[in-house]
Specification:
This protein has 183 residues and is of the alpha/beta class. The protein has one domain: Metallo-dependent phosphatases (Purple Acid Phosphatase, chain A, domain 2, 4-Layer Sandwich), CATH 3.60.21.10. Helix content is 15%, strand content 29%. The strands form two sheets. The chain has a six-stranded mixed β-sheet, covered by helices on one side. A five-stranded mixed β-sheet has the order 4-5-6-8-7, with no helix packed on it. Helix 1 runs parallel beside helix 2. It is an enzyme of class 3 (hydrolase). This is Phosphoesterase. One of its GO terms (molecular function) is metal ion binding. Keywords: Hydrolase, Metal-binding.
Length: 183
Amino acid sequence: MKLMFASDIHGALPATERVLSLFAESGARYLVVLGDVLNHGPRNALPPGYAPAEVAERLNTQAARIIAVRGNCDSEVDQMLLKFPMTALWQQVLTPNQRLFLTHGHLFGPDNLPPLATGDVLVYGHTHIPVAEKRGDIFHFNPGSVSIPKGGFPASFGLLDGNKLQVLALNDQRVIAEVAINP
């Protein structure tokens, strides 16, 4: 199964359009949106091309192929614009070999892990910093932010292709981080 991950869109229309273009090219079955979809939040500057209603319209074109979780900047009002459910604080995706625990990262995250089994993958956003690594018995994966990158990293997204998790730069798709998850 191939999945694409995008986090921390924060209402940025150019980033959304780029994500959807890459999603169409990727061959991924689903686009996993890890929260902070429409609003920029009070701690962030407005991202370039801030247009939350238009972002909702664009994402809605792929509603049947989006799996989403709620971020700390998302609200129930946002759900009124979106045609895919995004109010769950976490979701789980089961692959033949492990569980992907999807969350935004503000409740569950590296410092507050949910119960995970050996080989499971914690998939989160929130920090806007890319991560793809094994820590102890579990894998940590953060695709970074498509709109407001931090830590000196470029805007980025993620891919799961077979047993490889990658964080890729949004503009040129160069690999920023990757880890092979055990089959």
